[in-house]
Amino acid sequence: MAGGDYWTSNYPQPTFLSSAGYAVHVDCDAFQTFDFTSPAAHQLSAWAIPAAVEFWLGEPAALVDQLSARFGRQPMLPDWAMGGAIIGLKAGDASFARLDAIRAAGTAVSALWCEDWCGIRETSFGRRLFWDWQWHRARYTDLPARIAALKADGIGFLGYANPYLAVDGPLYAEAKAAGYLALRLDSDAPYDVDFGEFLAGVVDFTNPAAADWFAERIIGREMLDFGLIGWMADFGEYLPTDLRLFDGSDPMEAHNRWPVLWAEVNARALASRRMTGEAVFFMRAGWTGVGAHCPLHWAGDQLVDFSRHDGIGTAITGALSAGLVGNAWHHADCGGYTSLHGIVRTAELMHRWFDFCAFTPVLRTHEGNRPDDNLQIDSTPALLAHFALMSRLHAALAPYVRAAGAEAAASGLPLMRALFLHHPDDRLCWTIQDQYLYGRDLLVAPVVTEGAAARPVYLPDDDWRCLYDGTPHAAGWHERAAPNGLPPVFVRAAAPMREALLALGAAHAAAARGLA
Asked: Is this model's pTM higher than 0.90 or not?
């Protein structure tokens, strides 16, 4: 059950888009199953009567426009979020010296992300966090001054929060005394969830006072007023189905709505400080309408390997799927996250993550659940040199990303796009999950297969140029070498920014030759 069950599903969106030219959304909060196994018909089942079953007709891009308008479109990200790498470190005070060394290697850095700003809890799963969302003074002894110094140097500081409170933290006691926690069915005691060697209470967001308290007391005062410019708004999907909620709603149906309530709490905190569009939180959990509140999605906890169903490649599949229903801004943990049962990062895996994440809207690293057992971006000079190179390329692509972001705000088209969004008549484009269009004018084909020095790339009908040397390429399949630092990427000849992109690619290729 490591992948979850019916009450831990991260993003069970009841919507699908068909290659037959239509999209369907089931307006129902209850548990649902969609069965596509029959060649003759689709079968949709729900545990409650839907308010509506909604249909749209059109080409794929038009359907995404309509779906994103229905569910809510994400706004443009602030420039800092796409203008350099967000470096994830959880080493307490030692994080700052490591950041200095990472920057000294030539890395373009926009922010430092220390999810352990609230403290850590070591468990058998790995290095987890202390779920009490405020500054942990012992782990970060002078954090306000550190944040101020980073800000003066143009570097933001990010933290972490989720909608649960550890029973051994002071915020739990505060929430319990105020009656802000979800309760047990058999008593007025808080429903404490076992999250693996520790218990945590569920802040009851169906209680308006509890939602306001979390937005103001925790996110507003402990995070935004403290100086954080962003945070991982983790979880949101773990609402138990056997608890009692303030508004009397059935938790079996409230479960699916919970990520949207969680997103609303975070967005409300930003609005209260007039920081909407300036600070950024990112979520993995979702449901119908989450994009109207959450500015940035992330792919969740990939294994630190190349496995087909939970490794690096699934971050691409997830981005392409999420982008169809309003999540225009998407990214992943660079390096992956989950390390269990002897699965640890290899240098090859890290290099492939660097190449992939440079061509995503946000480049954010993660040390993973077992940082001491796994390679990090600064573990070797070769890894750091490669990461620094790709971070500079990512930062240099910011003008192109902003232009694609403006298109996303106007039309709902995601920045990472399935090929069929612009090539619906090409049947192959409906089946390819390991390459994507980055905006309208770049086609990216990262290497997500272990041991591969090259990969096949499919170019749909258009006039393409290699990003690195401008060589023309016709439509169809091409076998492309993919050394570290030079993942296969192509530019549309008709791109408005073609010359600037090709010049950038040529300069990057010259720098990448030194990686070997």
From this structure: yes
- Across 355-453, the runs of DSSP E, i.e. the strands, are 364-365, 416-417, 436-438, 442-444
**Which residues are the active-site residues?**
234, 237, 301
Cα separation, 202 vs 189, whole angstroms: 12
* Phi, psi torsion values for 261, nearest 5 degrees: -60, -40
Read off the tokens for 385.
């040199």
- Topology (CATH level 3) of domain 407-512: Immunoglobulin-like (2.60.40)
Q: Distance (Å, rounded) from C-alpha 96 to C-alpha 89? A: 9
**What does the domain layout of the chain look like in residue ranges?**
15-71, 162-231+239-279, 407-512
Per-residue pLDDT of the chain (516 residues; tens, 9 = 90+): 455 666 677 899 999 999 999 999 999 999 999 999 999 999 999 999 999 999 999 999 999 999 999 999 998 999 999 999 999 999 999 999 999 999 999 999 999 999 999 999 988 888 899 999 999 999 999 999 999 999 999 999 999 999 999 999 999 999 999 999 999 999 999 999 999 899 999 999 999 999 999 999 999 999 999 999 999 999 998 899 999 999 999 999 999 999 999 999 999 999 999 999 999 999 999 999 999 999 999 999 999 999 999 999 999 999 999 999 999 999 999 999 999 999 999 999 999 999 999 999 999 999 999 999 999 999 999 999 999 999 999 999 999 999 999 999 999 999 999 999 999 999 999 999 999 999 999 999 999 999 999 999 999 999 999 999 999 999 999 999 999 999 999 999 999 999 999 999 999 999 999 886
